[in-house]
Amino acid sequence: MGANEDQEMELEALRSIYEGDESFRELSPVSFQYRIGEDGDPKAFLIEISWTETYPQTPPVISMNAFFNNTISSAVKQSILAKLQEAVEVNLGTAMTYTLFEYAKDNKEQFMENHHPGSSTPTPIAKIISVETPSPAPSSKKKDKKEQLSKAQKRKMADKTDHKGELPRGWNWVDVVKHLSKTGSKDDD
Fold first, then answer.
1. How far apart are CA 58 and CA 51, in angstroms?
2. pTM, 2 dp
3. pLDDT band at residue 187, thresholds of 50, 70 and 90?
4. How confident is the model at residue 44 (pLDDT cuts 50, 70, 90)?
5. What is the pLDDT of residue 113?
6. How far is CA 108 from the centre of its chain?
């Protein structure tokens, strides 16, 4: 079988194996991503595997350059890539994308043992923004700030007002008129 036939068969197998798996993503017919670890897991990482024209006779290109991995130190990334390359050499000549993803899943804890989520984390965006943003003017502007309303409060207010945002004439007299009509009171002055 030629390389293209092997790739077509492996592509079909990957699509059926990972159908419905949110961790797997097919970027193109020769490029795939897999998230190792659950959503929100600080030790989760993303592996991208791209096939060369002569894959599986030649090794695929394995990358961890995705933005998702920006909190992982380059030493840990290099360590993971080195271990994956060892697995590539063992499986050279056979379909190995599934094998590599499963190998990474099975060895996630070992791969990430030197990753410490708090130590190498880049500066949060909020800090960068607050550093670059000039401090606001004194408290005079804060007094002018409008009260924030919830969605339900806004909807209720919209139901009471007309298209201009004004309350209908006599809106606050409705209860008084109802009361007078029930009691039969009239102003006889």
1. 9
2. 0.56
3. low
4. confident
5. 79
6. 21
Q: Quick one: three-class SS letters along the chain? A: CCHHHHHHHHHHHHHHHCCCCCCEEEEECCEEEEEECCCCCCCCEEEEEECCCCCCCCCCEEECCCHHHCCCCHHHHHHHHHHHHHHHHHHCCCCCHHHHHHHHHHCHHHHCCCCCCCCCCCCCHHHHHHHHCCCCCCCHHHHHCCCCCCHHHHHHHHHHCCCCCCCCCCHHHHHHHHHHHHHCCCCCC
User: What region, left, alpha or beta, does residue 2 occupy, with left being phi > 0 and alpha being psi -120 to 50 degrees?
Assistant: beta
Distance of CA 85 to the CA centre of its chain: 28
Interhelix angle 97-106/3-17, nearest 10 degrees: 40
What value does the mean pLDDT take over residues 65-84?
85
Cα 80 versus chain centre, distance: 23
139 pLDDT exceeds 50?
A: no
Q: How many CA atoms lie within 13 A of 36 on its CB side?
A: 23
